[in-house]
Structure formats: structure tokens, C-alpha cells
Design brief:
The chain is of the alpha+beta class and 292 residues long. The radius of gyration is 20 Å and the shape is globular. The protein has helices spanning 89-92, 103-110, 129-146, 151-172, 181-194, 203-210, 214-225, 229-247, 252-258, 264-275, 279-286; strands spanning 3-5, 18-34, 37-51, 54-59, 62-66, 72-87, 122-124. It has eleven helices and seven strands. The longest helix is centred in the middle third of the chain and has 22 residues, at 151-172. Strands 1, 2, 3, 4, 5, 6 and 7 form a seven-stranded mixed sheet that branches.
């Protein structure tokens, strides 16, 4: 059974859910999973990466995004050197950057990778792309290790920039990643939803956007998100509302309207159903801690 790593095991992640560091593997590294998102960038060396039970060759420039629950291990590694970044996207990536609207973001961070299915959250940034990625990794490492005043803000900004760069490559550059047509369509649908959470989103609109029948659309949502479209939209509205409550001074009513809820009482009920506390109490508990 795969060992499960928890983000809270790493010092300081209780207040700021981010940690990073270099790693080198020779031979093998045991199968494991996490309760956080891990971004792995391989800088040099070679080996085999066993992901969700399937084996892939790996080397310099390979990038992997592991969502909670995905398992992976290394074998036959020779000087395999990498940078591991472990974080919670909702708390680290800048919410108003438009990032979640990008199909590349949805393909890497939004769509599921079922156990046994071919792993799709990987890409390659070798050639002239790798130095750009290295520079951002070095900037992150300097801020993380120095902990100078404002380091959290710079980590958020740099991480958002790094993820935007990777999402552009994944979504636009076939040399960086080969994306199947169904996965690309679902990533576009998810990005469409993220960009219109304050609007009415109907199943009919999603059918027209995807070119799918109702039955096929529901099947694809269940396969990629583990839930039907209407529930997925609700979950995204509530996630968006939680982000606004934690990072803005908007009133609870304004947060509800901005997240697509026309009835503030209905919003409060749905929010409490998911987060187990009313919106006002959630804000008190989860407001982003300012840097000094």
C-alpha cells in the first residue's frame, strides 16, 4: 500500500501551505501519494516514473502535476535530479489572475486522472523552455529559503507566473504536451465555467460548447470530475465564494452575487453544507494572513 504524505508534516505549512526543495534519486524511490498538489520538475538524469501503476521514461525537462490521491514512484534512476513543490493551489495561486479560466490549467490541475488511466498531467519543457522554468524555480527557492519580509507575496506571484507559463505550453504547444481531443474539450468546458461563475450556466450551453449530447456530457463530467455538470458548477461557485471571503472585504451578499447566487439565504445554506460553517464564520477562520 502506498505511503501517504501530508502537507502538515512539513514545518510552517499550517499557516502557509507551501514547501519546496531539491531531490536526487539513485536507483528507486518508494511508491507514495499525497494529500496536496505536487509539482515535479526534472532538471537532469534519467529513470522510469511509475504513475498510477503505469511506467513512463523520464528525464530532463519533464514536468508532472500530481493531484491528491495519485500514486507515483521512481525506478532505475540515474542521477535523477528534480525540484519538488508541494502546495495547495487555492491558497497559493493568485485567484484573480484568470488562471483557472485557462484550458491548460484545467487540463493540468482540474481534470482527474483515475487510477489505471493513462496519466495526462505531464509535459516537457526541454530546450529553450527549461532555462525559463529554472529561473522561476531559483527565484522561488531564494524567497522560500530567505523568508524575508513579503516572501509569501513573492512566492504567490512567482508560483502563479510559473503555472501560467506551464499552462500556456500545455494548452497551446503540441511539442510540450500531447493532449487528447476529449481531454482538451473538457478542459475548455471547465475554463468556460470558471470564467462565468457570476452568470447563468445551463447544461444546454455546455452541450453546445462541447458538441456533446446530454448523455455523453454527463458521462464525461462523471469521468473527469466525479460528478454531474450541475453539481460541478455548484462546487465551483462555492469554491469561488470561499476564495472571495478569505481574500477580499466584500460583504457576504456581494460574495454570493459574484459567485452566481441570486438568493443570499440559499447561498448561505449551500455554503454551510460544504464548509460546515456559515460564510461569516468561514471568513474569520480562513482570512489570508498578511505579510509583515
Amino acid at each position: 500500500m502506498a505511503h501517504i504524505y501530508h502537507l502538515t508534516e512539513y514545518p510552517g505549512t499550517g499557516e502557509f501551505p507551501f514547501t519546496m526543495g531539491p531531490a536526487t534519486v539513485e536507483g528507486a524511490f518508494h511508491e507514495h501519494a499525497h494529500d496536496f498538489v505536487e509539482l515535479v520538475v526534472i532538471l537532469r538524469g534519467s529513470g522510469r516514473h511509475v504513475i498510477n501503476g503505469r511506467t513512463y521514461d523520464c528525464g530532463a525537462g519533464d514536468v508532472y502535476v500530481f493531484s491528491p490521491g495519485s500514486t507515483h514512484a521512481f525506478e532505475k534512476a540515474r542521477g535523477l535530479t528534480m525540484v519538488n513543490i508541494m502546495f495547495t493551489p487555492e491558497a497559493i495561486l493568485i485567484a484573480d489572475s484568470g488562471l483557472r479560466r485557462m484550458p491548460g490549467y484545467q487540463a493540468l490541475f482540474g481534470l482527474s486522472n483515475a487510477i489505471g488511466d493513462r496519466f495526462r498531467c505531464m509535459m516537457n519543457v526541454s530546450g529553450d523552455r527549461l532555462p525559463r522554468v529554472r529561473r522561476l524555480l531559483e527565484e522561488l527557492a531564494v524567497e522560500y529559503e530567505s523568508r524575508r519580509p513579503g516572501y509569501r507575496s513573492l512566492i504567490r506571484a512567482t508560483m502563479t507566473g510559473l503555472v501560467v507559463l506551464m499552462c500556456r505550453l500545455y494548452g497551446e504547444d503540441s511539442a510540450a504536451a500531447v493532449v487528447s481531443r476529449p481531454r482538451r474539450i473538457m478542459a475548455e468546458v471547465a475554463g468556460y465555467i470558471e470564467g462565468r461563475l457570476d452568470e447563468e450556466i445551463t447544461v444546454e450551453k455546455l452541450m453546445r460548447l462541447s458538441g456533446m449530447s446530454r448523455r455523453h456530457l454527463f458521462r464525461m463530467f462523471n469521468r473527469n470530475f466525479g460528478m454531474p455538470p450541475v453539481r460541478y458548477i455548484m462546487e465551483k461557485r462555492l469554491d469561488h465564494a470561499a476564495g472571495l471571503l478569505a481574500s477580499t472585504g466584500m460583504s457576504v451578499t456581494q460574495v454570493g452575487f459574484s459567485s452566481g447566487f441570486s438568493d443570499s439565504n440559499y447561498f448561505a445554506r449551500q455554503f454551510k453544507r460544504k464548509y460546515h460553517v456559515p460564510p461569516k464564520e468561514f471568513r474569520i477562520r480562513r482570512r489570508v494572513i498578511s505579510d509583515y
